[in-house]
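Data card: per-record layout.
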Amino acid sequence: MAYIRPVGDIFISDSWQGHIDRPTPSTEPGVDYGCGSGTAVHAPADAVIVETHDSPSGGGGRTIMLRTGGDWHRALHLSEIHVREGQSVRQGDVIGLSGASANGSETFFGPHLHWTFWRARGEDNPPVPGISGTDDFERFVGLNRTGPAGFAMEDDMFNDEDRALLTTVRNAIMNTHAGIWSGGRATIDGQVSVFNYGVLPIVAHNQNLIARLSGQVAALQEVVNQLTSTNNVVLDQGAIDDAATRGEDFARGGLTNEVVTNEPDVP
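The structure for this 267-residue chain is written out next.
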């Protein structure tokens, strides 16, 4: 049975390789899917639920461990768990909802689904979750579990190297989109930083902050004008408030509030 993505064809906010390449490498490298909290998480194939952790405690928050044949998977940072240990599920069944849980908080991270994958390498070398190295789940999406890595295209002129290249290109495109919304990476003074909340939410937040500060500056300027224009120390509060509003409105001119329904949730 070919694997499906647990949250559909959504962008990848951090790849398996990206977890390894961090300044402090991830202890459980996997694929981060940039979905909003409450997104349905589906079984990637027929599976047995091996273990659940229904609490935001720990680095993974709410987690589900499942086994598909000889392969093992773990979903991290969930907001809800809809299965129990020992339960058999079919491919596509909803096993939980994505979230941002970790370290005792429901919102420790920006919302996403972290999916860890351990691939079986024969009966004599079964994976041991937590001990064995993890594998890039994206390399096996759309393929039989025993198939080659990459895109599932049958063509004598289309080999594993081509599949690997297309996977890299696809993930780069997805990560370009992710960099705008959440999980984007940037090198600043030699330090790789991750935008937990995405570039656009940060810009919007800063625009509001600048607007408030602009209003305060305009109000202070009005106070100075009143103090220096007369010996009367009774300030005109109405004029000060009007100045603050004008300053804030001017700064907010570059930001329009609207409801966006076709992009992932951002904090």
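Known properties of this structure: The helical segments are 16-20, 160-181, 199-229, 237-251. The two ends are 36 Å apart (CA to CA).

See the next section for split statistics.
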